[in-house]
Write a structure and sequence with these properties.
The chain is an alpha+beta fold. Helix content is about 65%, strand content about 10%. Helix 3 packs antiparallel against helix 4 and helix 5 runs antiparallel to helix 6.
Length: about 400
Amino acid sequence: MNTENHFLLFGQKLKDNSELLTEKLFQKDIPDPSYQYSDIHSTFFSCLGNSLNDDEHAAFERIVQWSQLFFKRVDQFDIQIHAPFFLGNQYRSVILDYIEEYLLQTNIHSITLVQIIKKIDSFINYGASLFSNNRKQMFEQDMNKFNQAMMDKKITIAELKALKKALKEATILTVTDKDDIITYANTKFCNITKYSLDELIGKNHNHLLNSGYHDDNFFKNIVDHIKSGKVWKGEIRNKAKDGSFYWVDSTIVPIVDRMGKTYQHIAIQHDITDQKETEEMLLKTEKLSMVGELAAGIAHEIRNPLTTIRGFVQILDHFSEDKKYLYSKTILSGIDRINLIVSEFMVFAKPHAVYFNECNVIDILNNALHLLGAEASLKNIEISMNFHPTNIYIYGEKNH
């Protein structure tokens, strides 16, 4: 068999047995797990076989594709490129073992064997150079990414320092551990609580500043909320060292570890004591205004039946006994009306149910006109009444 035929035959055997050669490669001492992808190595052995039975140009194009495939796989699986190296020695060792087996089966001239080995060695060297160039490019890319990450990190650290300074200057800031023990407090926190930093560090935040205004469920809800990893926002009334009370608008941010468990809390607070006092003052003013309006309404309601009583008392001596009896009933009705108004005022703070019933509008108007009759007579006013012949009913409360 001539040299060319041996080249073609041995090249075809390498291609046909590329997977077997890969298995033999895995039995060698491979320095890094990055090489444990069998298709990468079987492709290399196929390319090596093509270099013996194809034209050299096509074979070198295939090995370029192989090199790109390898580094694409490395990038796909996020393998650090500084670790792996080209397995040139391992490839040579596997090929030489295979050539030894091939010699036992085939009669081949020594010169032909040397030419095959030289071509294989040249091809492996070319693969190593491609690998080295690609490795260098990826290393440069990784370095660029690393440098960019470091720049971003520096920017982030600078931003965090600025944010930390802004928080210290503009807010009341505390840091507590998972058990609510104070581990850090800024100057504004010391000023509002009237405690020194030494008196605060190591103390339980809630126990030290609890004003008694909020119940246990209030704080339990806060703890449950932040333990679940959620930010809590709300208003809290605390007690300072000198016994004075103050209000803060609080935002409590839980910090969680890799396991998702809260290990500390950052409390960002703003003093809203003046705002709360202003709100309370406005509420009192609003209540006084309501009381004033209520007093004016009650005075008006009482003045009406009093005017009627006064009017009838003034003219009572000018009428007969029958008239006096009739007007006495009107006076008593007015007194009952005053008593009803006072009774309703007494229960004003405790609202009661109002029961609606059918009311005769004509009867209500007759009673009202009857109450006004005495005052009308004193002022020489005559009231004429002209009602519908049949009763008219509405649904309501007649005294209201």
